[in-house]
Write a structure and sequence with these properties.
35% of the residues lie in helices and 16% in strands. It has 396 residues and is α/β, with parallel strands linked by helices. Bound molecules: adenosine monophosphate. The site of adenosine monophosphate has 16 residues, from strand 14.
Length: 396
């Protein structure tokens, strides 16, 4: 796959799809700049290369209508401060007026288009809309990993009408870590999966059983596996219809000689109030949880066992929390595993998107891991081995 390093973009109008889907506070100001900061290496490089930079993104779900609440105007302001140069905010993303404005851009100037999802055609990957977007530019750069698993006009459709089409540095890094480093890992390679559902992650389990030496399953997902092996799981969150799926994964792990590890103990409670972030009194149980109690976190023995495996690993991939980490009483397991990963400085540690990123940030160890993915769904689909539409359209 070609990247911005491989092409000469001097003087060219370059359409850059970024992920500026940032949270806004009650005053409509950007409350977390992480995603904007993440796009800076690509934007700064294009500025140095004297390209004319036209940035495009979505923000929220305006559902195909122009809605000021989802305007990218506050992002232009934040970006301009970070770049230390003006960012020209355009009040639309297609049309004659916008075309004539971008045609007047000087080299190294940066413009930001209004939210592409103000048009329903964007998510429909409508060919005419893709063509309208393409009229703004000569070349295409995709640096929005978080939406690369969606075939939309600005993430995929537009590429048909522009050349060259290359990846930015953010996508390059995602592929390096989620792709190369897990495809040919340094061994032992430990995969730690958690979260709510086996059904969401079974394709990832299946794909990674071909590569891992150890696979640790925590979170609510573990209860489906424990039930499949004849344990009592009380009222824990479970997918009873996925017992066969769990047994098939256990069988595959044996065939592939992968050490598949489940919690040997759980923190459990008789009451969970997620809305108010509280639980009833908690108790630790071993492999069996009595009726009326729900497992909400891995227990101390499991923490110790999982941490020991982490300490002996050379490559570690984490996807999904070990318990209900949003509630203090059931966050310990997730944070302890995050800490064990952070403390293994010898290993390449990869945090695979979504809730795991929130958990690692909350644990205070985000600076101590090798790579944190910017994609939730995209990172899962990529790890499953799927071809992401936003990457498939780039020049090889
Ligand atoms: P996922 O999106 O599949 O990665 O799931 C993340 C969610 O799983 C988080 O919101 C956690 O609170 C939840 N979760 C993890 N462990 C448990 C558990 N033992 N019981 C209920 N929910 C859990």
């Amino acid at each position: 796959m070609k990247t911005i390093r491989d092409v000469n973009l001097e003087g060219k109008r370059v359409f850059v799809r970024v992920d500026f889907n940032v949270p806004l506070d009650e005053h409509g100001q950007v409350s977390d700049m992480t995603r904007i900061t993440a796009a800076l290496p690509t934007i700064n490089y294009l500025i140095q290369q004297k390209a004319k930079i036209i940035l495009a993104s979505h923000l929220g779900r305006p559902d195909g209508t122009k809605n000021e609440k989802y305007s990218l105007a506050p992002v232009a302001k934040g970006l301009s401060e970070l770049l230390k140069q003006p960012v020209l905010f355009l009040t639309d993303c297609i049309g004659e007026k916008i075309i004539s404005t971008v045609n007047k851009l000087a080299n190294s100037e940066v413009a930001l288009l209004e939210n592409v999802r103000f048009y329903a055609e964007e998510t429909d990957n409508d060919e005419k809309f893709s063509q309208e977007l393409a009229k703004l530019a000569d070349a295409y750069v995709n640096d929005a990993f978080g939406t690369a698993h969606r075939a939309h006009s600005s993430t995929a459709g537009i590429a048909k009408f522009l050349s060259p089409c290359v990846a930015g540095f953010l996508i390059e890094r995602e592929l390096e870590f989620l792709g190369k480093k897990t495809a040919n890992p340094e061994h032992p390679f430990t995969v730690i999966l958690g979260g709510a559902k086996v059904s969401d992650k079974i394709s990832v389990i299946d794909a990674l059983l071909d590569k891992a030496d150890n696979m640790i399953i925590g979170g609510a997902m573990a209860y489906t596996f424990l039930l499949a092996q004849g344990h009592k799981i009380g009222n824990s969150l479970v997918e009873s219809d996925k017992i066969d799926t769990a047994l098939a994964a256990i069988k595959k792990a044996k065939e592939k000689n992968v050490q598949l590890v489940f919690p040997v103990d759980s923190v459990a409670t008789d009451h969970i109030d997620f809305a108010n972030r509280t639980v009833g009194t908690t108790q630790i149980f071993g492999l069996d949880i009595p009726d009326g109690m729900s497992g909400i976190d891995i227990g101390p023995k499991s923490v110790e066992q999982f941490s020991e495996i982490v300490r002996q690993s050379k490559t570690i991939l984490l996807n999904g929390p070990m318990g209900i980490f949003e509630i203090k009483e059931s966050a310990k397991g997730t944070f302890a595993i995050a800490e064990a990963i952070a403390q293994n400085r010898e290993a390449i540690s990869i945090i695979g998107g979504g809730d795991s990123v929130k958990a690692i940030n909350k644990s205070g160890h985000s600076e101590d891991v090798t790579f944190i993915s910017t994609g939730g769904g995209a990172s899962l689909e990529f790890l499953e081995g799927k071809t992401l539409p936003g990457i498939a359209v780039l020049d090889q």
